UniProtKB/TrEMBL annotation:
<dbReference type="InterPro" id="IPR008228">
    <property type="entry name" value="UCP006173"/>
</dbReference>
<dbReference type="InterPro" id="IPR005358">
    <property type="entry name" value="Puta_zinc/iron-chelating_dom"/>
</dbReference>
<feature type="compositionally biased region" description="Low complexity">
    <location>
        <begin position="188"/>
        <end position="202"/>
    </location>
</feature>
<dbReference type="Pfam" id="PF03692">
    <property type="entry name" value="CxxCxxCC"/>
</dbReference>
<feature type="region of interest" description="Disordered">
    <location>
        <begin position="176"/>
        <end position="202"/>
    </location>
</feature>
<comment type="similarity">
    <text>Belongs to the UPF0260 family.</text>
</comment>
<protein>
    <recommendedName>
        <fullName>UPF0260 protein NVS89_03790</fullName>
    </recommendedName>
</protein>
Amino acid sequence: MTRPTIKDRLDTDSAVADGTGREAEPFWRAKTLEQMDAEEWESLCDGCGRCCLVKLQDEDTEAIAYTDIGCKLLDDVGCRCRDYPNRQAQVPDCVRLTPQTVRAIDWLPPSCAYRLVEEGRDLYWWHHLVSGDRDTVHAAGVSVRGRVEAMEDDLPLEDYIEHMVRWPLRLPRGAMRRPADPARGRRTAAPPTVAARGTARR
Ligand code: SF4
Ligand code: SF4
């Protein structure tokens, strides 16, 4: 027997019969960030790892720029935190995402599911809750897999500025297009200081 996926379970949990045999909207369309329970909240993270790239902040303007340097706990292949439960003990400036911080910070990538929901937009085809596959975030070129050029402990701070990149704040082409294979997806939504990091727990 096939085990249910996270998506199956959440779809089932959030589906409410409306009297016509149709299912209600999935939770990320039906609920605000505040209304999500802990499991829904955690599942909303697409696993892209973009927010775990080191960011630089201009001391004068406070503008934030991404780098292609990974946080010391980032698994640059799996694109996940290698010690998620204890991350803030190891990385004190790791920002814990909450509905309030999602609204307050302006550096979350445009692909970030928390940002999309907060902006009233749908998830993209490659999000695992839509595709049913945790690999589609990598296949679509949205994750940081293959794009992390260094880890923070391997570089002196003065070299970080050479690693400034713009791509984490852009959507790759593959993120916008529906895949040719319909089974892959169903819906498309339409000397510096080291600055904040992101993570997806509240
Ligand atoms: S919190 Fe957002 S940007 Fe960070 S890994 Fe999750 S979906 Fe990606
Ligand atoms: S969740 Fe925080 S500690 Fe973990 S890799 Fe991302 S930024 Fe680093």
